[in-house]
Structures are given as C-alpha cells and as structure tokens.
Amino acid sequence: SESTRNDLVRLYSVPDNKISVVHLGFERFSSASSVIEEVVTDVRPFLLYVGSRAGYKNFVGLLKAVSSSAQLLADFDIVAFGGGTFSGAELAQIKSCGFKDNQVRHVGGGDSMLGALYKDARAFVYPSLYEGFGLPPLEAMAHSCPVISSNTSSMPEVIGNAGAFFDPLFVEDMAAAIERVVYDSDAISRLQALGHERLEQFSWQRCAAETLSIYQSLQR
C-alpha cells in the first residue's frame, strides 16, 4: 500500500524511487448459508469482527464502542470470527462492558462460514489501529456487507469511498459511525453498491500486470 511505502520512507529512510506499490488482488469466495444457521442464527442482528483481536487490532475498542451506546448495546450482538477462542481477559472485558450472556460470540470455520457471516451481518467493523493492507474489508464488500472502518494507515486507501470511517482512538466516534450506518437502510444500500464498485480496483489481473511492468522497467 501507499501507506506502507510512506512508512518505509519515514521510518527506515528507504529512497522513494526504490519502492513501487502494487495493490493485492482479491479473490471472491462462496458462502454456505445453511452452515451459519447451526452456529449463529439469532433473532438479534449482529456486527461482524474478523481475525486476530490482540493489541493493535483494537477488538477491545469495538467492545467499548458498542457498549458505550445504549441503543447499540440493546439492539446488536457481536460475532468475532477467527483469532481463536476468547481469552479469560477478553471474557472479563466483555462482562465488564455490560454485554449479556452470549451477546458477544466467537465463531471459527472456513471461508464458507465466513462468507455466510458477511452476508448475514448488519455491518462489518474494522477497528484496527494499523494495517499494511487488509483484505477483510474487500471480503465484506464482495458479500454485500457494509464496511465501517478505522481511518488510519492503509484503510482509507483500500476502502476508498466504500466505507464509513471513524477515529479508532475514540470509542464515541466509532459508536457514532456504527449508528450512522446500521440504522439507515439508505446508507447500507449506498455502501453495498459502492463496495461492489470498489472491488474492481483489486483484480489479480491488474496486480500481475503492474508487477510485470515493474520487472520490465528494471531491465531497461
């Protein structure tokens, strides 16, 4: 990402002309809706979190943001996919935030399960403090799941105009961004449409062509 390139220049003094940026390609995967029913089906809608939860991933920030909003806390569950089962510290944090039993759930599985979760979630929330690129927002877009994301590092570069952004250091800002999307059907539809458009920027064909062009330029 351009964000990572800027970090290399700023932190390691790598000459700018020695760095080329080629965005990753994105490959869609299917979902199996029949699988999700056995694991997470509930009357209540849910927000989806994907991946590792430690440190800079800021999962605790998401817990605090949702619990800071009486409306979100009353209306939504949180489903965390992957990253291993909740630790004792995470369970204690969930309890201290005031969530009800099973309101915050961990789910594991493969791409079919993840795809089903993206399809059924009210929104995907990406609260990370830093990402070098980040594929989950693109995965969410591919499954028509609205993206609500941190505004730091590479996230705006990858997501473009196809997401609602917040400052991950302020739980009130995160909560407000979530509320603006999940309670507005027009906002959801708009982000879904923009997400499908955004995916066209991340094909493997484009990635391969730009990589080949760099190799060819080095031979001149």
Condensed summary:
Helix content is 47%, strand content 12%. The chain contains eleven helices and six strands.
Give a written overview of the molecule:
It is a single chain. This protein is α/β, with parallel strands linked by helices and 220 residues long. The radius of gyration is 18 Å and the shape is globular. Helix 7 links the parallel strand 4 (123-126) and strand 5 (147-150). Strands 3-2-1-4-5-6 form a six-stranded parallel beta sheet, with helices on both faces. It contains eleven helices and six strands. The mean pLDDT is 92. Helices cover 47% and strands 12% of the residues. Helix 7 packs across helix 10. The chain starts with a helix and ends with a helix.
**Beta-strand percent range:** 5-15%
Helix percentage: 40-55%
Shape assignment: globular
- Major β-sheet strand ordering: 3-2-1-4-5-6
State the end-to-end distance: 25 Å
Beta strands, count? 6
Spans with pLDDT under 50 lasting ≥5 residues?
A: none
- Which structural class best describes the helix and strand composition? alpha/beta
The profile of the biggest β sheet is: 6 strands, parallel
Question: What is the N-to-C order of secondary-structure elements (H for helix, E for strand)?
Answer: HHEHHEHEHEHEHEHHH
Question: Mean pLDDT, rounded to whole units?
Answer: 92
- List the total number of helices: 11
Supply Rg: 18 Å
What key attributes describe this structure?
220 residues; six-stranded parallel sheet; alpha/beta
Write the layout of secondary structure elements.
Layout: H1 2-12, H2 33-37, E1 46-50, H3 59-68, H4 70-75, E2 77-81, H5 88-96, E3 104-107, H6 111-120, E4 123-126, H7 136-142, E5 147-150, H8 155-159, E6 163-166, H9 171-182, H10 185-198, H11 204-218
Parallel strand pairs: 1-2, 1-4, 2-3, 4-5, 5-6
